[in-house]
Amino acid sequence: MLYLKIVKEDLPKLFGALRRFGEIHGPVRMGRFYAFREVSSVDEMSLDYTRTMIPPKKYFTRPRERILRVSRERGYELVGEGPRRLVLFGLHACDINAIKITDSIYIDEYPDPYYSERRRNALLVGVSCLPDEECFCRSMGTDYAHDGFDLFLHEVGDSYLIRVATGRGEEALEGADFLRKPEREDFVRLAEFERRRARMFKKELLASHLPDVVDSLHDSESWKEFVNRCLACGSCNLVCPTCRCYEVSESLNVSLKEGFRERRWDSCFLRSHALVAGGLNFRPTRLDRFVHRYNCKSGINRATGLPYCVGCGRCTVFCPADIDHVEVINAIWGVVR
Amino acid sequence: MIYAQEFVPKPAEIADVRQMTPIEKLFRLRFLNDEFERSFRYMPGQFVQLSVYGVGETTISICRSQTRPGPLELLVRRVGRVTNALHGLKEGDVVGIRGPFGNWFPMEDMEGSDVLLVAGGLGMAPLRGVLQYVLDRREKYGNVNLLYGVKSYEETLFKEEVLEPFERDSGFESFISFEKDDPFYEDLMRRHPDRLRKGVVTALFELVDRYLDPKNTYAVVCGPPVMYRFVMRELDRRGFSPRRVYVTLERRMRCGVGKCGHCIIGGATSITYVCKDGPVFSYFDILSIRGAI
Question: I need a labelling partner for A149 at 20 to 30 A (CA). Which of A43, B99, B193, B199 fits?
C-alpha cells in the first residue's frame, strides 16, 4: 500500500488525471436520492452522499442485456462489446466489499465474459463515509475495505489521504505532481476519523453466529409478522449490491431468422424463481421465498470470507413495506423481543 | 473479448430421434466440431444446457455412460417451451449444447460395493448412465439392483434395458412397481411375483431385502421430489449410512455455472448451487438443508 495526500482544492486535478483512464462515474444527487452517473467535473458529484439507490453492480451486470446473438443458420455467438474504460469514483467500503463478492462469483473457474471484461476495464476509487441511521456495515465487518479497490480517499480535514492499493491505481496517478507525501498528523487524523465513525453507528445486528442462527430458525414464528407485510415486490433484490440472480430469455426478430438471448436481473421474491418444468415450485409460498432471501443474505461467501450482506441498508431504505433487514434478523434471534 | 467456452452453445446435429413414451423422446447428438466432440468428456450424473435456436435453453441430464461408444444421448420430456420446440425437430436439425456441467456420482468410491439404484419415472434417465457405467465395469462392483417405479408399461423408459433381467442374465436385478392397471405388467407380475409390485417404488424394498447388504451398499436415488422423503425413510430403516446414499436434485437453472442463482438451495452455513456443487449430493450433505428434498 502506498499512501499519498491531496488537498481538497486539488480534486479537479485528480479528476483530470483519472480521466485519462476512462469515463468517470460518481455519486450524483437525483432529487431525494443518489445515483452513480457519468460526471464531467468534481462539482457534479456529492462525495458526502449516504448510499445510491442502485448499487454499482449495474456497471458490471446490467439490469437487462443481450448476451448472445442467435441465428437459425449459424447458431450462437457472443455479442461484441467495445471495451469501455470506466472510473467508478466515490465507492463506499460496503460497495467495494460487495463487488469483491460478485467478483468471486462472476470471475471464478467459469468467468462470465461480459462481467470479467467490464471489471478489467474499471478503476475503482473509494471514498470514506459517515453512517446514517440505516447503515450497519460495522456489524457485518464490511465497514472498511482492505482491498478490492485501486485508490481509496479518506477525508482528513481539508485533505484526503489516498490509499493506493494497486499498480494500476499508481499508474493512473503518474505525473500527478499535486500529490504529497502524508505527514504523521494525517494518519492521526485518519485514526480519529475512524474512531468517530465507529461511534456513530446506531444499528446493530448480532452477526457472530448469523449463518447458524438463520439456518436453524426457519420455523421461528417471528418470520410471519414480517412476511405478512412483505409485498414480494423484489425491490430489496434490485437494490442489494450482492444480489445477482438473473433470468434469461431468447427471441427472434421479425425475420424469424436472427435474434438475441437476453438476461435481466431477477428476484427470488418472484414466484417463477424456483419453478421447474412441469409446474413444480420449490418455494411456493411468500414465506418460503422470504426465508430464502434472508438465508441467502446471511451466509458467508466462501471465496472471500465476507458476509453476503454488507450492511449498506439499501433493502431497508427502499422497502415499500418498511421492512427493516436488521429488525427481521434480530427478531428471529430473539434480540428485539 | 475473452472467449468463453462455457457460455456459447456448440452446434450439435440430431443424429437420431426415438419416441420413447408418448411424452418423451431420446435424442442422439453429434457435435459438428470434431475437436469438441473428442474433448467432450462426461460422467454419470452430469448434465448439459440444451438450446433450440431462437427459442431458448433448458437443462437436461445426460442419460448414457461414456464407457459406451456412441453419441451423446439425452432423454427429453415434452413439458415446456424449449422441450416442446425440441420435440418438433428431426434428424439432421442442429441444436446448441453447453457443458457438461455439474459433479457426478462417486463411481470410484462405489467400487467394491453393491449398488442399489432407485428410480422414479423420469429419474431413470440420469440413473441409466450409472447403470451402464457399472455394467461396463462389472467386475469392480458387487450386486447391482434396480428399483424402478413407473406408471405403466407405456410410460416405462428404456424398456428393453430395464426388462432385460426378466429374460436373461444381464448383470443386474430389476424390480418394477407400476401404478396404473396395466396388462403387460400384471402378466409379468404373475410370472415374477418376487420382482414386481403394484404401487409406488417404496413397495419394492421388501422384495429386494434378501438381495441387500445395507452396510456394503451405495444407494443412488433419482425421481420426482416427493419420492425422496419416502425412499430416504426406507433406506434409513435398513441402516444405510447417509454418506452412502446419493441423490441427484432438480432445480431451475439458467447458467449451469453458479451465477444466475436460481438453483441455490439452503443458505447461510450451507449455501449451495445445485448446478456447480451438485446436482449429485450425498444425503449427508443435504440433511440440514431445508427444502433440499
Answer: A43
